[in-house]
Design brief:
Blueprint (H helix, E strand, L loop, with lengths): L1 E6 L3 E2 L18 H9 L8 E5 L10 E5 L1 H10 L3 E7 L7 H18 L4 H19 L14 H9 L3 H13 L20 H10 L1
Helix pairs in contact: 1-2, 3-4, 4-6, 5-6
């Protein structure tokens, strides 16, 4: 990736890579503190991450934001015209493999900078799982140079979490639950066609 200063008005926010589904800069009480930090003597310590588009958007935007929405919003609040960015080279944003790689980057970067709300993290993991299946689902297990360990292990390695965390995120997302107490492992959830009473019992056990 190349490090360069780019105009804020050239950055497009594609919802595909925005993993903070419920975040609103207008109501975030921590955004002012972030803006003060950016305005301080050290400035922006961690550049945002963008990918250069092969063609501009309808509004002439040349870059797609992958990670750094809060930093971008704070820079906009400060009236900055440019911001330091790590720029990924142009690529085909329509291919599943590219979307999988960039979404994984966005989830990991957001998790490292500030904890994602559990529900946002679970939605992101579900989206990664769907893209992973689209990219690798039809490949034979012996395909050279491709992941062969399955989504759970791949996601755990990419996001730097345990496989148990990934499994629990997927189980809870399927049930619409918020969290599981630390140290507990959920059993396999009942199938969608299972009686409602069985699904409720499983949810209560969690």
């Amino acid at each position: 990736m190349e490090l360069r200063s780019i105009p804020l008005h050239h950055i497009d926010r594609d919802p595909t890579y925005q993993v903070r589904q419920r975040w609103d800069p207008a109501t975030d009480p921590t955004l002012d503190a972030l803006a003060r930090s950016l305005a301080g003597p050290e400035g922006l310590l961690h550049p945002i991450v963008v990918v250069q588009r092969t063609t501009p958007t309808t509004f002439g935007r040349l870059y797609t934001l992958i990670a750094g929405w809060r930093r971008l919003a704070a820079a906009q609040r400060l009236g900055w015209r440019t911001i330091l960015a790590r720029v990924e080279p142009p690529c085909d944003l329509d291919t599943p493999a590219t979307r999988l790689r960039l979404l994984a980057m966005a989830v990991r970067e957001n998790t490292e900078r500030q904890d994602l709300p559990p529900e946002d993290r679970r939605v992101a993991v579900q989206r990664l799982q769907a893209l992973y299946a689209e990219v690798y689902g039809a490949l034979a297990p012996t395909t050279p140079a491709e992941p062969t360990t399955g989504f759970t292990r791949w996601a755990a390695q990419v996001l730097c979490v345990t496989e148990r965390t990934i499994r629990q995120d997927l189980q809870l997302a399927a049930l619409g639950l918020d969290s599981v107490p630390a140290g507990r492992v959920l059993p396999a959830p009942p199938p969608p066609e299972a009686p409602a009473a069985l699904r409720v019992t499983y949810a209560l056990r969690a």
